[in-house]
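My current task is to audit a protein record that another person submitted. Thanks in advance; the entry in question is below:
***
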Amino acid sequence: MKKFWETVQLKKTDISSYEIFLDDKVLKTPLKKKLTIPNSKIAEEIYKEWNQDTNIIDTDALIFYGILSTYIDKISGNRNPYIDDILDFIDTDLTCYRAEKPNDLVQWQSKNWDPILLKVENYINNKINAFKGIMPLKQDKEIHIKISKFLTKFTDLEIVVLHRITNITGSVFLSLCVLSNDKIKEKAFELSHLDELWQAENWGYEEEASKNRNKINLELNRTIYFLDCLKS
């Protein structure tokens, strides 16, 4: 996107909300709704995203803006489609499909992914199945019901974050650990790219794949940082 403004200003509109101005025009969402920012930390990050020192704005870097805009434009008061999309990941969750060989990869997956499933099992008081191979299988219906109930504890804005992290990682179970502020979030990227990183370590790093992983890592870490700012 070509930069069409010269100055970016951050203004406090009341005791707990902020707005961004591009020159004299208030920053709005893609659907032209007012972008009301809920706290100072998120406001500062959105300000920095739009205050890029370049004539061409990297829209992929507008992660905080994108999350908040999605909440305002699409999910506020209409969270069910996003929840349904999140629940669709239960039967295909990355952490539930395990290699059958080689043995060191099998052990590596178990060491890193079993604790994720254990934590979510504790959240919902229900056993989660791990499968061998890549053929799609289904979790028990009770897991879907209990995960759906567990999601009611999160706000609409947290659901936006959960939806984004789930789509980035391919794992609703890992994402639930992140949203529950588990320390596992510090390794979210590595845990969601376990097989790729294992293959790269054993067979060598490919430059283009490494660049793609770095881009995904940045998006994931920024999304998790949004959550930290939201809860601060």
Q: What stands out?
A: The chain has a mean pLDDT of 93. The radius of gyration is 20 Å. The first strand starts at residue 8 and ends at 12.
